[in-house]
Design goal:
This protein is mainly alpha-helical. The chain contains twelve helices and six strands.
Length: about 260
């Protein structure tokens, strides 16, 4: 199986023979700079080659639209589409008030919703439509992805209600599975390796930040913004970024030793 099924493949369309499954994998893969804009890998269908080519071309069109910052003419003519709704939400105070990490997460989800529903009128969504899409995500992706994308679609549809584009949010009536808690327990050897690597690279503040995260249990923002003057004697004095209240915490011996060593 040396010859890929699609000749003259569109830009960003990838094809790979999977020996174990004895089938082709066909997908659309954005470059690093496009991933930073929120685009993600989209799986295509090796059993529907014509559709896969058209879908890749459509996704490339979304890339062009995203880079130019304009809505596609077809979408603009139809007005209140999912694509237009996404663009409006991304310029709203609700979106701009989000933390940068949350904005990136939203954009990644929106790009996947855009790839599926971009030209669809917002008023066409019904609970059965959303439910069938959610079930497809469960089959083809994972319970985590399905729950995340359904939640983001619900956020968009709530925004549509505020804009007057719809009278209701049909996603609210569609139940979804609760993703199981993901647990990852690190080892002390991994912790030692991380801090040692940071020190070896001259990243002493990173080594200290790792220890603060493990031993002090504070939010990432508070750790990143911590100043040397905040560490007095055996105490870390800070004002929490989330609630704005002040607090003082006794330093763990491992943290105290690292601070003393760094001066």
């Amino acid at each position: 199986m040396n010859q890929p099924p699609i000749k003259n493949a569109p830009q960003r369309l990838r094809q790979r023979w999977r020996a174990r499954e004895k089938s082709w994998r066909i997908w659309w893969e954005p470059s690093t700079d496009l991933r930073e804009l929120g685009f993600e890998v989209v799986e295509l269908d090796p059993k529907r080659l014509t559709w896969s080519v058209r879908e890749a071309e459509r996704l490339n069109g979304l890339v062009d639209q995203r880079r130019s910052g304009v809505v596609a003419p077809a979408a603009a003519r139809r007005g209140r589409t999912v694509l237009a709704l996404i663009r409006d939400f991304e310029t709203s105070p609700e979106f701009s008030d989000l933390k940068p990490a949350s904005q990136r997460d939203y954009r990644q989800g929106f790009r996947q919703i855009e790839a599926k529903w971009g030209d669809s009128p917002v008023v066409d969504f019904t609970p059965p439509v959303i439910y069938q899409w959610y079930r497809a995500l469960l089959r083809e992706r994972s319970v985590f992805v399905a729950a995340s994308l359904k939640r983001k679609l619900s956020i968009l549809l709530s925004h549509a209600v505020i804009l007057g584009w719809r009278s209701d949010n049909p996603a609210l009536g569609v139940k979804s599975k609760t993703p199981p808690r993901r647990t990852r327990i690190g080892t002390w050897e991994e912790l030692d390796s991380l801090t040692a690597s940071a020190r070896r690279l001259g990243l002493y503040s990173i080594a200290l930040a790792i220890l603060l995260a493990i031993y002090q249990g504070q939010r990432r923002t508070d750790i990143v913004q911590a100043q040397r003057a905040a560490f007095a004697e055996h105490t870390w004095l800070l004002r929490r970024s989330k609630r704005g209240n002040a607090g003082g915490f006794e330093l763990h011996p491992e943290v105290l030793a690292r601070i003393s060593h760094q001066g």
